Amino acid sequence: MLADYERAIAGSGERILRTFEAEAAHRHAIERAEMATVTEGVRAKYQLQGWGMACGFIVAMSGIGGSIYLIATGHDAAGATVFSVDLGGMVAAFIYGRRSSAAPAASQPNVERAEESTRSSRRPSQ
Known about the structure:
Elements: H1 2-8, H2 12-72, H3 76-107, H4 111-122
Helix pairs in contact: 1-2, 2-3
Transmembrane segments: 51-71, 77-97
Organism: Pendulispora albinea
Keywords: Membrane, Transmembrane, Transmembrane helix
């Protein structure tokens, strides 16, 4: 096929190949940039989750420490209330965290299926 182009216009076969090579290099550069963006996003997500867990731990330990202090100073009802609220908050956060981490996976569209449907719509109809 390239030979036919070469016969029609001298050097056209080589120009076509250079164009295809340049397009492939361009596509690879775009894919590398997308992958770097995705990787950075995942890294930021886990870093944010780590900070959230650390802050949650500090708040929970402050509540438990406060309840121990209240009980030790003779405020049994207040200490028990603070401890119960703190424990309830930790349990609620654990349950909510489990549910919310499972929900997005089910609601996210299948990227491969979307890409395949896009590719199939570009194919010439037969």
